[in-house]
Sequence to fold (804 residues):
Amino acid sequence: MQKILRSLVQKNNSKIVLVVLDGLGGLPVNGKTELETAATPNMDSLARASACGLHIPVAPGITPGSGPGHLSLFGYDPLEFQIGRGILEALGLGLEIRKTDVAVRCNYATIKDGLIIDRRAGRIPTDQSRRLTERLQKEITKVDDAEITFAAGMEHRFAVVMRFPEELEKDAAQLPDTDPQQEGKAPLAPQPLSKNAEKVAATAGKIIEQVHEILKNEERANFALMRGFSGMPDIQTFEEAYGLSSLAIATYPMYRGLATLVGMHAPVLEGTVEDEIAFLKEQYNKYDFFFLHVKKVDSYGEDGNFAEKTKRIEEFDALLPKIMELNPDVLAITGDHSTPALMKGHSWHPVPILLKSPYVLGGLCSSFSERECTKGELGIFPTVQLMSFMLANSLRLKKFGA
Amino acid sequence: MQKILRSLVQKNNSKIVLVVLDGLGGLPVNGKTELETAATPNMDSLARASACGLHIPVAPGITPGSGPGHLSLFGYDPLEFQIGRGILEALGLGLEIRKTDVAVRCNYATIKDGLIIDRRAGRIPTDQSRRLTERLQKEITKVDDAEITFAAGMEHRFAVVMRFPEELEKDAAQLPDTDPQQEGKAPLAPQPLSKNAEKVAATAGKIIEQVHEILKNEERANFALMRGFSGMPDIQTFEEAYGLSSLAIATYPMYRGLATLVGMHAPVLEGTVEDEIAFLKEQYNKYDFFFLHVKKVDSYGEDGNFAEKTKRIEEFDALLPKIMELNPDVLAITGDHSTPALMKGHSWHPVPILLKSPYVLGGLCSSFSERECTKGELGIFPTVQLMSFMLANSLRLKKFGA
Fold:
């Protein structure tokens, strides 16, 4: 489908804004969902004049992670383009990934007499772990011709990116985990599953050795286990796929990272949603497509905090007029998945969406909510089709056939 | 899917009538679409008792041409069966296409000292172009063993069909355009891209040569450029696919032509919609399936004439009782795509449909419109599934599995 889209793409001066309220969809508590409970006069009014519906990020009944949820919003089938765990971890910790790189997520572990006695090094505190990781980075910056980058995570977790001098083959990261998944066993050596993975295996082996040498006197964190070896997915950029120059506006590294995977420009940004919208305004003339990510809605959903999730939705709604002032040709407001506070986590439920453009029927939904969106003209559709709708509504697609 | 359908098809005496109001779907102007604005008491009453919904001709967000729109209505996936530009042009000009044929659309051009100085021969007037084309037809009727047919189009456009003595291989029309797309360049020779295309290339080359010889003293139209070489698509007939004898009732050559591609009988017909319905009555005992095409709804949509498009819908509605008198077992009323007057052209919007049969729920829509159809029992579905619905409702499909 993306192939057909690409053959129909035409350029114009239209602006598309995609607002992702992370984890937007919810479930009723005392009869109403978070979105139904929130006072959202601006989104309600917009919903009345917009094309509305619900979308399914991966497949019916499937709960998406953030990676698949966003890839799907960007028009990439998340079943076809699977992002490795190492890549996701590295992106989440703010590392940049290129086609020359292999990323891997690591655990500090405790090893004694060649056997693992704690796969998580007693879940050492984050600040201690951070100090160790900084020490490793100081002492290990290059292994053979590969540049090595470490990034500290929570507790015993960290990530490593190996950057080689040349672009890697597709199967260069084909290595199973070195974590034997069981205490009392020896760690596994990095084992190449393809010819092209041999170099990565050798580099990883040397890193593990050097890490152990540096940390050998640590009481708990004296070893590193590696999981989720992965390379950059072979994916078309937004520019290639849709002819769109694109900007990601996100304060969390993971979402900027996901955006960079599809070639979006994703500068480091800190601050509030208001700051994000200010940045959108500032950059508005420079790009065709804007992905604006609002994290906190999901965070409170994950905490099971219905009231705070509701409040964050209200906060965004109050800021919406600032986006409307820009009068984008197409404005879509939705989430990357549902995170009902009731479930304290991501869920499989279709995600409500409103799509504002001059070319919609509108008039079918009285407010913006999961239940009202079932009445909308978009129906319930696979998330991966959203890019088609946004491109069509910005008149960026030619006719198919004569 | 068509394969499964075919294995389930059974014959009976039911009659199916598919009415295509070309470009039916619209968008609101002053709050209402064309179909919502039109006074359509007959379709409204039918919609209340019918299965209603909206269908997507090609894919979400994709604007279909007439070819894909109709193929899809006939149950052929328009992404799988793509109709060449030469074929569409020839069909539109009233030529008949067989499996022995290659069709190509042509431009009159101006050539001087071997270089093209005007790719459109100054857009010569249609009547002048017509005279030239008649002259060519008079002088060129056969090249080697191929019969050659010319058909005049608008301004500098015309079409050529080469009819060979035998059925052609699939890749026999694999030739790039001879139009270099730029003035100041020499025209390209017909270049076979496959072994089977060599014969077509040779014939095309001789036609170009003879045309130039005949027209060499013309001031402007002294050469022919060829584009969109294409053969008959390899497509099952309606009889093969569904066991249906079928009649196309259409006053525009293009739509009769599209119907003949799937093996419908499509006699030349002129006149009004009333004449088309009279012809339906006259032929009603002779076929199982009737495709009745109403062109003008689309034409006024393309012109951006909201009021006239509305009026043409009303005109059809007033005639609907004459079709109802026949009491077809299944009657579907829909369009091949949307043509909102607001957009002055085809669009990607799902097309409203009502399907009358004894085996529907009904009672879900209060009138026939884009918005009411969102409430219908058919939901929003790919157009290519419509044939299944029509066959099922005429009890022409056996049970699948035991």
Remarks:
- Chain A touches chain B through 30 residues (CB under 8 Å).
- Chain A has 14 helices and 13 strands.
- Residues 86-231 of chain A form one domain.
- The radius of gyration of chain A is 23 Å.
